[in-house]
Write a sequence for this structure.
């Protein structure tokens, strides 16, 4: 994986590179030592991040006995899918999964719609009062009422213990609004607006048939940010929901993984041990199952995500 | 729980023609201008109505609800009907023996987090910037970035599993060297380290992205001339790269310090257990317990309000200091 093996894998560029190296100012030896240290550091960091993940995944594919005996390191021992069988045989988990899917899809649609609805008008330079609106929104980043005052509002609006409690109260993220506004402002030239107006195109029509198609990459980024937030959130469910049928996956996870409530009274000692072993294994598989949707889309969107951060980073 | 994102703005100037155009338009900001704008763009104003109502209801009404801190809340009389009690909630809280523990735990945990993750993100970005683009670089970036996408619940569960005295791989490793099993989460002395380093594990790759962007914005000519002058790699990092990412770093540090009292409820709450409570109880978890579990709404609001105010003061204070020292701040 070092620089040398890399050069070897690209024989076509080898000569070219060697020529370039000859032309370059030669690096002093201390620099090469330094570079070696850099590679070493990165390799260590890579291992530190990767190994716990590997350990979890390997354990999830091992047999309950191997996991309980602590024989699993970074590769499955006695390959088995029993952990995954246990996960999907658990009605709470399946219900939580379905709930989370609903919250993620519905929440993202609501959030993206609201974000565009406020960000686009603010991006139009001819709109009087848009700076006042921006201040109104930005202030909420600096100061918040706090947990209880917000809870009381959610209660008085009648959202407590409904599915909407997980969607409406955190529908809009100020950060996402800033990203969207900056994008609209930089990617949609003012001339385009003027040209459309000359042709008799109204503002809404323009938004729908010109701006939104042009802003697809940004909308994808913002939608993904919302979706991942929704999929991963558990705090709102913890405070707003009482009915276990509405629990999202993360709350179910917390109950099983952290509070250890798999439940069920046992009689026989060997049954207890077996059940305990399976419960241990279940945790590993559950972690994998819960993270798979997010990690699956991650490689495809990582680049756009980075771009999204950078769009937001432009001071607006 | 509004979270101020930790990735913010390298201030980038806008292109000059646009600035001119904006100045021309700004002259119209008058009552007459507003009326004309309303006539011309009423559909756009209409579009903003629902989100604005949302902000009013879910952000501004809670702010006004914070008067609860000065009231003796009574469900029947409601927020505004309940009797005023002035500063009594605050006084009671200050006299509560738990007060100093909470403030200290919150403060230490946050400062430790900032102190550990801020330099590490910069180091990771600098290291990645030093090596040539290729498979290794991409792998490191992808892998270190990935944990950011895993939920807090899962990260905490992983931490608990990895550190578990019965199953955990860490104790397996220690056992290999003959060290007896340690119950990491049951010992309050380990709590802060576990909290901070699992956080670093999760967020360093993500935080490095913003510095990488700043590094790629540095003029390559600066590096070239430094090379010609015989600067070593380390010297170039010190004299070219570091000054180059300084503005970004300052802004991120200001935000991080300004967020010190707002440390995440989620993680502390999930990592908590009765054994480590002496170090893991922070203001946010205490507010949750007082307010929602014990239903003492007024007291919880008072504590929350105190927390927000400390936060705001910190943010303004650090911003002022940063601006005086480095000339960079969150706002000008």
């Amino acid at each position: 994986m070092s620089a040398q093996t890399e050069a070897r894998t690209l024989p076509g560029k080898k000569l070219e590179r060697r020529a370039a190296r000859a032309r370059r100012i030669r690096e002093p030896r201390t620099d090469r030592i330094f570079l070696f240290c850099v590679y070493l550091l990165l390799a260590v960091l890579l291992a530190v991040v990767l190994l716990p993940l590997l350990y979890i995944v390997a354990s999830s594919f091992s047999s309950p006995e191997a996991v309980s005996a602590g024989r699993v390191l970074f590769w499955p021992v006695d390959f088995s899918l029993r952990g995954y069988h246990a996960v999907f045989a658990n009605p709470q988990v399946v219900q939580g999964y379905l709930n989370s899917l609903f919250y993620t899809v519905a929440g993202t649609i609501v959030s993206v719609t609201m974000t565009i609805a406020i960000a686009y008008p603010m991006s139009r330079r001819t709109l009087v009062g848009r700076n006042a609106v921006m201040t109104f929104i930005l202030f909420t980043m600096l100061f918040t009422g706090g947990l209880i005052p917000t809870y009381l509002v959610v209660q008085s609006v009648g959202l407590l213990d409904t599915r909407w409690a997980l969607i409406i109260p955190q529908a809009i993220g100020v950060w996402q609004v800033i990203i969207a506004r900056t994008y609209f402002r930089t990617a949609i030239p003012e001339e385009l607006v003027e040209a459309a107006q000359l042709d008799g195109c109204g503002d809404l029509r323009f938004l729908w048939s010109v701006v939104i198609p042009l802003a697809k990459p940004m909308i994808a980024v913002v939608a993904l940010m919302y979706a991942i937030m929704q999929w991963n959130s558990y705090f709102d469910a913890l405070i707003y929901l009482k009915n276990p049928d509405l629990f999202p996956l993360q709350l179910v996870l917390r109950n099983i993984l952290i509070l250890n409530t798999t439940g069920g009274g046992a009689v026989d000692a060997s049954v207890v041990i077996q059940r305990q072993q399976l419960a241990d294994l279940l945790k590993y598989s559950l972690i994998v199952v819960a993270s798979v949707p997010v990690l699956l889309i991650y490689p495809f969107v990582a680049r756009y995500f980075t771009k999204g951060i950078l769009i937001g980073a432009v001071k607006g | 729980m509004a979270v101020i994102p930790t990735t913010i703005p390298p201030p980038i100037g806008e292109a000059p023609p646009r600035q001119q155009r904006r100045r021309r338009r700004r002259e119209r900001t008058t009552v007459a201008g507003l009326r004309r704008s309303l006539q011309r763009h009423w559909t756009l104003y209409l579009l903003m109505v629902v989100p604005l109502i949302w902000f009013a209801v879910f952000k501004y009404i809670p702010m006004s609800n914070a008067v609860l801190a000065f009231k003796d809340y009574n469900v029947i009389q409601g927020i505004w009907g309940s009797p005023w009690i002035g500063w009594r909630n605050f006084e009671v809280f200050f006299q509560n023996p738990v007060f100093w523990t909470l403030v200290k735990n919150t403060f230490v945990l946050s400062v430790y987090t900032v102190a550990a993750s801020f330099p590490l993100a910069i180091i990771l970005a600098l290291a990645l910037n030093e090596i040539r683009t290729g498979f290794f670089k991409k792998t490191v970036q992808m892998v270190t970035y990935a944990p950011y996408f895993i939920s807090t619940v899962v990260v905490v569960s992983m931490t608990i599993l990895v550190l578990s005295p019965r199953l955990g791989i860490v104790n397996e490793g220690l056992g290999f060297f003959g060290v007896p099993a340690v119950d990491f989460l049951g010992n309050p002395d380990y709590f802060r380290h576990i909290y901070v380093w699992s956080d670093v594990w999760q967020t360093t790759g993500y935080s490095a992205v913003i510095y990488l962007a700043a590094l790629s914005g540095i003029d390559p000519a600066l590096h070239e001339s430094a090379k010609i002058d015989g600067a070593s790699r380390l010297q170039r990092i010190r004299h070219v790269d570091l000054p180059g990412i300084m503005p970004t770093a300052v802004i991120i540090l200001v935000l991080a310090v300004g967020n010190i009292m707002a440390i995440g409820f989620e993680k502390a709450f999930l990592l908590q257990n009765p054994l480590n409570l002496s170090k893991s109880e922070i203001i946010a978890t205490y507010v949750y317990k007082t307010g929602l579990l014990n239903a003492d709404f007024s007291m919880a609001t008072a504590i929350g309000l105190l927390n927000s105010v400390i936060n705001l003061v910190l943010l303004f204070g650090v911003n002022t200091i940063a601006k005086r020292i480095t000339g960079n701040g969150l706002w000008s």
Summary: The radius of gyration of chain B is 25 Å.
